Fold:
Amino acid sequence: MNYRGTIGILTGGGDVPGLNPAIRAVTFRALREGYRVVGIRRGWGGLVDYVLGNQVDNSAHVQPLTEDIVNRAGRTGGTFLHTSRTLPARLPRAALPGHLQSRYTDDINDVTPHILQAIEDIGIDYLIPIGGDDTLSYADRLHREGIRIVGIPKTMDNDVPGTDYCIGFSTCVTRTIELTHTLRTTAGSHERLLVIEVFGRYAGFTAMLPTMAGAADRCVIPEQPFDIHDLTKLLVDDRNRHPSAYAVVLVSEGATMINEESMSFEGQEKDQYGHRKLGGIGDKVSARLKELTPEYNRGQRINIVNQRLGYLVRCGNPDALDSIVPMAYGNLALDLILKGRSGHLVALRNGCYASVPIDIVTSRKKVVSVEQYYNKERLRPKYETFRNQPMFIMTSES
Structure:
């Protein structure tokens, strides 16, 4: 067949519900517009592993996409193209595939020249990476190297700059609310404090929105270090006022107590983007609450229910928004391609679909505006009016 060109799609970073609907939307529209579509497997890792040459079997790294393939997957969660946290600009020698080991010999290697050759070898005219700020920051690098890029934002934390909404955020908030309400039965039965650790490395949106929706009494977020004594007093007061004698706090994984030097990590190992795996702040908060509650509860200790939601909010099928928005994002990406535009990130801004230059991803961090939306004394969201606010209220940058 004579194609208008070839479009490549990849998914990078953590999995979220909504990735497969986005792949489906891109593929359906692209095929009907006369393009050939290929999926790059395992994110940027698929291009690293790609072996140059026409006589090489690269089916483990590049997959032709058809309507039948993506239609089945498009109703499910996760990513059928698989994903990785590979960063070709900082690839450790130990992670180099065999075909690159003689070409790159440093401890940390920038294999971007190989990536550019792989893209050319596959024949990709436009590349659509779906990911968070890490995946998209390397996409910006490729754009500056001359690759035609149209990015789609994805992350449960909803912290990609330039867009009010990232794929996966709604399902994360929905699951957080559901699971928190489910855990209430145990907290109430035993008259305990319920501490739930949720995602959010730098941004507290996934703790703020469920709390605003009534899932928790308090929340602590990465943007504002908190005093554990203040939190204890507030939660004890909340518990003592509650008919079932319990209270709930959502703790962002990136939150820190006042006077702590850093976030809480599971270990010392870093990924290729320089991130250590977060985890443990919920345990710390739980231990300190148990220790301090007698000071604020007439000498009586209050026990704790401590739960990290983790992968429970990122697995399974997408909710309605994470089925609809990826469809729109995929079609918006094709709109840009059909106009010959690249170096853009599709976006939602003030309730309207739009696009922004992809270099916005590396320009700043997107976080909760503490002064506007967070009550530092009450450790919970604040608002003055909802009139003319975007649907998710605090996620707009305008």
Summary: The chain has two domains: 6-167+316-362, 170-313+369-381.
